[in-house]
Each structure stands twice: as C-alpha cells, then as structure tokens.
C-alpha cells in the first residue's frame, strides 16, 4: 500500500515544525460530513497541535542564535519576528477564508490558497499561479527534509555525549552514531501508513516535553552565581545568522491551515484571543525564555544545541540528552512523510505496473534518508543547518509569499490596494533582507567550517 493518501493532523502527523500539505476538500454534495465531524478537533486539541508543531529542535538552537545577535537584541528580535510572522500567518488565513467563499471550497491548503490568489491578482501575475504552487511545495519539501537532516546531526551528537560520559567511552565517532541511525530510520520510513506511527508520535511528545522542562531547570538553577558577561549586541556581521535561526524556529506557517481545516469551531481560530494568536504567543515566550537564559548561562561557549552544554558529569544531564535525542529520532519519520503526500503520486505516475511503482517509491524513500545522512555527516554543526534552512525555506514561506497572497486575493477591492501594497512591501522587504543576508552568511559559515577542518564540537566528560 503506497503513501499516496493525505496526512491528517489528527493522526499525530504534526510534529516539530511539521508543514502538512494535506489536500483540500471541496464543498460539494459529495462531502461526507460525518467524516468531517469525526475527525474534527476542539480548541484545546488544536492549541496542543499548534504548540507541538512549533516547539522542536529549533528552540534548542536559539541560545546560539542569541550569541550571534547579542542578549538584548536577540530577546527583542524574537518578539519582533514573532509579531511579523504571526501577522503574515493571519494574512494567509484570512485570504484562505475569502478564497474558500469565492470558489465554493470548504478547505484550502497553503499552496492551494497561493495558487487561487495569484489567479485573481493582477493580470501580469496570473500566469505565475502554477509556478507559485510548485514553488511552495518545493520549499515545504526542503523545509521538511532539512528538519530530517538536522535530526541526523542532533540525535548522534547528544547520544554520543551522553553515552561517552555515562560509560567512560564507547569507541564510536559521531559518524559511527549517524551510520547506526540509518537502519532504524529506514525501517520507520518504510511503513506505508502514517497512522501506524500515532503511538510513536505520542511517546515522542511526552519525552520531548519532559526533556525540555528538565533542560530549563539547568538554565536557571545557577543564575545567581557569577558568569562571564555577555554583550547586548554582538555586531552586524553575525546578525544574519540569528535571523535564519529565529525564522527557522518561528516560521511554521505551513501548518496553520491544515490545523484550522480540522477544527470543529474554526471561527475561534483567528482573532486577537483566538487559538492561533494564543499558541503563537506561547511559542514566542518559550523561544525568548530558552534563548535568553541559555545564552546568559553559557555565554560564548554555547553550542548548536543547548543540550550539548549540560553538565557532562551529572547523570541527570545525560538522561536529558537521551530523552530529547530519542524524541527527536522518533519525530524523523513524521517529518519525512509530509512531502511524500505529493512526491509519491508524482513519482508513481511515471511507472505502469504495480511492481515498478512499488520499487520506485521505496527507492525514493531510501534515497531521501541516505541524502539527509550524507548532508548531516558532511556538516556536523546544527547551528549552520538551522540558519541556512531558516534563511532560505522558512523565510520564503513565512515572509515572502504571504504579502503576495493577500494582495492578490483582495486585488479586486480597489480601496484596499494601496494599504495592502504598503504593508506587503514592508514585510516582503524584511523577508528579502533576511533571505539574502541570512543565506549568504550561512553559506559563508559553512564554507569556513569546511576550510577550517573542524569536524565535531569539542567536549569533555569532566565537570
């Protein structure tokens, strides 16, 4: 059975930054309303899904992001980016509602919203609708596979440190730990139906929550002791790397429409005190808290994941690394399956027999896993990956596309054109600035990483 069906958020397909391009359902007489009601989520469940989708390994990289910006610039920047990204998210949500009304649709996904919006926009843009649709799918795939690559870095680094310090030495390099992940990851990713992984997702959520709570305990327990002072502003040179990491953590725009589409009461989703704003505000507060206290605690020694800074001589700290590493590992197949909802059908249509379709699909699954492994093995630095993915894919989805979607959706409303063009231009300019500077800085940092010959972040098991 192929993975050609739609991934549903209620099947626990929503995980760290999960961007689910599930298909929209047309509002026709053929819609099975009993099924819609059966899978509908209440406000509390939707809020939990939203928090789960936006709180992932990216939050653990924010202390290093604060190192690139400075303590107070990083703290203020998180709230600024959070507000801009939240507004851009609302631009897409309200545009989707308007387009649903105009096209007699019940639900629309992000890529479908953008396509329909461009078809209603200025005449010069209408022909670009199919290209925008494919572009969004491409960046959704890049984002998800980027998450998978980060996972192939994050899990081995944390497991290696924990096991080395708990056992006195394993004799395995980080590359060895990464290679050991390949087989279990492949077995998970060969499962054709994502619904089978629902219990795995639940376990991952429990482990991740426990690990994050215990990590925060370490960030604040020694704050009263003298620490090396940290700058409020780290300088302009490294600020673009901060932008990429911040957008990576915040920019989960692709999940907002699938979550709303599954709500029993979608009217409570937008609005000042709606589920969306409540969830995003809680996420931003958590981002700012972890980034602020993590950098304040460890200063310039902060690493790509704050878990790598936990005291190596304490058993509890090593248990935290193992808990979070396992939760992230269990999240890999959930991130992996989302792009398959459109990649598998696109691949299988080029083959004619059931056997050839099956072989092609599983060759693709294998190839994707191996590619993420190779990339992770080549650049064993979480911070560089996070910055690059955030600058390229997350910025495009969260800041560059939404202004066009809103402007095109309401283009026929002449009285709204000028205000929308002004607002959209400001958001687009911010996104473009971050895209260009963040991408260039991330690529330069990766090149420097290769030329410097650095391989693994140094650490010692002695306190």
TrEMBL record:
Gene source species: Meganyctiphanes norvegica
Compartments where found: Membrane
GO molecular function term, any single one: L-amino acid transmembrane transporter activity
Name of a matching Pfam family: Aa_trans
Keywords, sorted A to Z: Membrane, Transmembrane, Transmembrane helix
Transmembrane annotation, as ranges: 71-94, 132-154, 174-191, 196-219, 239-259, 271-296, 316-338, 359-379, 385-405, 426-450
Protein name stated in the entry: Amino acid transporter transmembrane domain-containing protein
GO CC annotation: vacuolar membrane
Membrane topology: Multi-pass membrane protein
InterPro entries, per database record: AA_transpt_TM (IPR013057)
Ranges where the Amino acid transporter transmembrane domain occurs: 45-442
